[in-house]
Design goal:
By secondary structure, the protein is mainly alpha-helical. The chain has one domain. The protein is built from 9 helices and no strands. Helix 1 runs antiparallel to helix 4, helix 1 crosses helix 5 and helix 3 runs antiparallel to helix 4. The longest helix has 33 residues.
């Protein structure tokens, strides 16, 4: 699989794992189970497509790390499907175990898979920053996806308390701020304390791809931050869930495009398989 294909498979994996963590931010007893059924169904599709793509590149695996990444993704997908199926039953104990196991294996798989995107030389700073950046991106993707989906649910089930919507919104804003800070601090640390190859890559990106980096920041960080303020005012002052959902749609497009641009930047940096 070409580097962009591998990056897109990883993108789907991140949406599935992050979306499940995003569901954990909601108050389970305050929302109808139909919301969890529809949202989990979307995540199952994303995880299944990611697993399909990972199996396709398994013959090109570079050792046990890549095999382990595929196995963890398979286990994650299995428990996600089991959680999805359990939503039609009343065995809450099993549902909680399926849910927590899916999150744990999904996060572990993301961290293992992230090392497949490492450059030719990797020092301790890179070894920490790379999986952390992939996990934070997954949580942001999941937060904005669940935010958009919960907004749709409020259009169907009117008259509900806005607290679940606010909780997902706060999770989204927190992850957006954390990712912005991580990118700034992480880039500085990679340049100052990373390997010579990493420092040279950072310098090359800022000198030759300034427009791409600036576009990524504007689309994926600045615009969603501005939209988050608008979503907050729309919910807090006007209680208008329809307008807030529309704004979440735009934020989702920005975050999704930003993560795809990140894949392109990673490829330019020589860190994609």
């Amino acid at each position: 699989m070409n580097p962009y294909g591998a990056a897109f498979v990883m993108f789907l994996y991140q949406v599935a794992v992050g979306g499940l963590v995003g569901l954990a931010a909601t108050p389970f007893n305050d929302l109808e189970r139909g919301f969890y059924k529809s949202t989990a169904g979307v995540l199952v599709v994303a995880a299944t497509l990611a697993l399909w793509g990972q199996i396709d590149i398994l013959p090109d695996a570079h050792g046990m790390r890549d095999v382990l990444a595929v196995l963890l993704l398979a286990v994650f997908t299995l428990f996600l499907i089991l959680y999805f199926a359990s939503l039609w039953g009343e065995r809450g104990f099993l549902r909680a175990r399926f849910f927590s196991t899916a999150i744990l294996t999904g996060l572990a798989g993301l961290m293992v898979a992230s090392y497949g995107f490492s450059g030719p030389s990797m020092g301790p700073v890179e070894a920490v920053f790379l999986p952390l950046s992939f996990v934070v991106s997954a949580l942001l993707l999941g937060a904005v996806t669940v935010g958009m989906l919960i907004g749709h649910w409020y259009l169907i089930e009117t008259g509900q308390s806005l607290e679940p919507f606010f909780r997902v919104f706060r999770f989204f804003v927190a992850m957006l701020i954390i990712q912005t800070g991580l990118e700034v601090v992480g880039t500085a640390l990679l340049y100052l304390f990373g390997t010579d190859a990493t420092a040279a890559t950072v310098e090359r990106l800022f000198s030759h791809h300034t427009v791409l980096l600036s576009s990524r920041f504007l689309v994926a960080q600045a615009a969603p931050l501005a939209l988050s303020w608008m979503i907050w005012k729309t919910l807090a002052d006007f209680k208008n869930t329809m307008a807030a959902t529309g704004l979440f749609y735009i934020a989702l497009l920005g975050v999704f495009v930003g993560e795809l641009l990140s894949s392109h930047i990673l490829t330019l940096a020589g860190g994609a398989p």
